[in-house]
Amino acid sequence: NVFSKMVKPKVYVTRKMNEEAMAILEKDCDVISWSGTDPVPRAELLKNIEQVDGLYCVLTDKIDKNVLDVAKNLKVISTMSVGYDHLDINEIKKRGIKVGYTPETLTDATAELTVGLLLATCRRLIEANAAAKGGKWQTWSPFWMCGTSLKNATVGFFGFGRIGQEIARRLKTFKTKEILYTSRNAKPEAAEIGALKVDFENLLAKSDFLIVCCSFNESTRGKFNLDAFKKMKKNAVFINSSRGGVVNQDDLVIALKDKLIWGAGLDVTTPEPLPIDHALFKFENCVILPHIGSAAIDCRMEMAALTAENIVTALRGEPMPSELKF
Ligand code: DGY
C-alpha cells in the first residue's frame, strides 16, 4: 500500500482524459498526463514513467520490455480497453505488476456497433448513401442495391465471449435460422441463446454471416487467411470487430477480388489507421470503420472511470474492480 508512506503515488496518463476520470486519480495520486488527444510519443512516454507507480494507458500504447525496464517503480498498469494485446503480459507477470482492464463496460456498445456494421455491410448502406448523394439514384428499381438478409441466415461467431453473446442475442430478433460458434471452451450461456458449438471447418462452411469477436493472441493471429476464405460460402458476409491481426488482410483482398465471399465489414484493421490508398478501401462491398466499437459517450465515460478506479484501488492495496487475472 503506497498510500501509507504519506507520499502520494505517482501516476502517468498517456492521453488527455475527461475531468471525471482525472478527479478519481487526483484525489489520491500525483498525476502527470500527456496533454494530447493523439498517442503519446514514445520518447515522451519513456521520459515520464521512470518514477511512476501507476500507468493509465490506452490500446495504442505498446507496453513492452523497453517501457517496463524504464518504469522501475511500476505497480499497476490500467488500460482503458478490454483488449490487452498491446501489453507484454509475460514481461509484466515477471515483474509482479498488476493489470486492470475494462470488460463489461463496453460489451453493449460494441455489440450495437457490430450489428450496425453488419447491417451496413449486408444491406449496402454506405454504398447506397453514396449513390443517392452522387446522383446515381434515378428511380426505384426492383433489384437495385439489393443486399443479403439476416432472416433465415446462419450466423457464425469466431469467439463467443461477452461481446459475441450480446451480438447473438440482438441478431436473433432478426429471425435468423441458427447461431453457431467456435471457441476453445463450450460456453454455458450458449444454451439460453440457442447457439451451437462447432469446429472451425464447420463454422467456415456453414455461416452466411461470420462474425469475429475473439481476443487477439498468437493462436488467433492471421486465422482468417486465404485457406479459410476459400472454405467460406460465396454469399458469406465477414465481420470483424475484434482486432485486425486476426485477419490476413492481403488474403482478404484476394477473397474480395475473387468473390470468394460476398462482402466484409471491418471495425479493425492492420495498421490503424488504414492508409487511405489501401486496396480494401477500393471495394464497394467492404465497409471500413475507424475502430469505433466502444465509441458511445456513456460507455467511454464508464471505461475511463473504471480505468482510474483500477489504478487507485491497486495502489491502495485493495481489490481492483476489474483486474486482469493471468
Ligand atoms: C477494446 O476495448 O479493446 C476496444 O477495442 C476499444 O474499446
Account of the protein in words:
The chain is α/β, with parallel strands linked by helices and 326 residues long. It has helices at residues 19-28, 42-48, 65-70, 89-94, 107-122, 125-133, 162-172, 190-193, 200-206, 226-231, 249-257, 297-316; strands spanning 10-13, 30-33, 54-57, 76-79, 98-100, 154-158, 178-182, 195-197, 209-212, 237-240, 263-266, 286-288. It folds into two domains: 2-105 and 297-316, Rossmann fold (3-Layer(aba) Sandwich); 107-288, Rossmann fold (3-Layer(aba) Sandwich), CATH 3.40.50.720. The protein contains twelve helices and twelve strands. A seven-stranded parallel beta sheet has the order 8-7-6-9-10-11-12, with helices on both faces. The chain has a five-stranded parallel beta sheet with strand order 2-1-3-4-5, covered by helices on one side. Helix 1 (19-28) links the parallel strand 1 (10-13) and strand 2 (30-33). It starts with 9 loop residues before the first strand and ends in a 10-residue tail after the last helix. This is Glyoxylate reductase/hydroxypyruvate reductase. Belongs to the D-isomer specific 2-hydroxyacid dehydrogenase family. Keywords: Oxidoreductase.
